Amino acid sequence: MFAHAVIIGSGSLTLAADFTPLDVSLETRYGGASARPLVGLLGSTKVMLLARHGIPHRIAPHAINYRANLAMLQTLGIERIVAVNTVGGIAPEAKAGVLIVPDQIIDYSWGREQSFSDSNKLYHVDFSSPYDRQLGNDLADAAQRARLDVIVGGVYGCTQGPRFETPAEINRMDSDGCTVVGMTGMPEAGLARELGIPYACVCLVVNPAAGRDGDSIDLDAIAIVSRAGMERVGRLLVSFFEGLEGLEGLEERS
Length: 254
Ligand code: HPA
Fold this sequence. Notes:
By secondary structure, this protein is an alpha/beta fold. It is 27% helix and 24% strand. It starts with a strand and ends in an 8-residue tail after the last helix.
């Protein structure tokens, strides 16, 4: 079976070139998930890929049914999740093309269904380390093995989208301590925590955030950086899953 899932976003369907759709229902008690998961091999590891924007890419960040996506992965027995997110760079080190494994989140999104809590169950989960520390360390080790430069640590600021931010919003996020800005990091990470599924994130910086380099955001340049960067994300994931396979007694890790 498949224990590992990668939730992929904009520009990452190239990772799934040889993958095939799993024949499962998208319906969950929270509504429909974004797409049928794709299954295949990353390196020699069986991995499930879920395209959070749907296939073809059509669901805006604020309209993604994050709860259905996570609930479906849980039902399918997924035990750990790596999220791939393209982001804008706010901090000087977050230049276009850079890979970052963030360790903190600030959530500026609003109006999204952000919890599995209902009248029967209330989730007050610890979110001091919003990303799973062990998986974050594993991603850092995987980057070293694959000789890929990755910045470990940083703050992911999640905005509502689908529009990009204003320079004033980015300045505010900068003074809040955000390293990068994306639109889909939350509530995905929080929902994974509620379900107790270890979850980590790899960000590919695809553009300088608004106002950080010139008067506007260049969408054509984003597509180019994204294409080149996803090849490195693919290598990072292969190395990451190879590392997991090499570990004995994985389930005993805390
Ligand atoms: N802002 C928000 N989300 C993004 C950006 C950005 O500049 N680039 C890629 N995703």
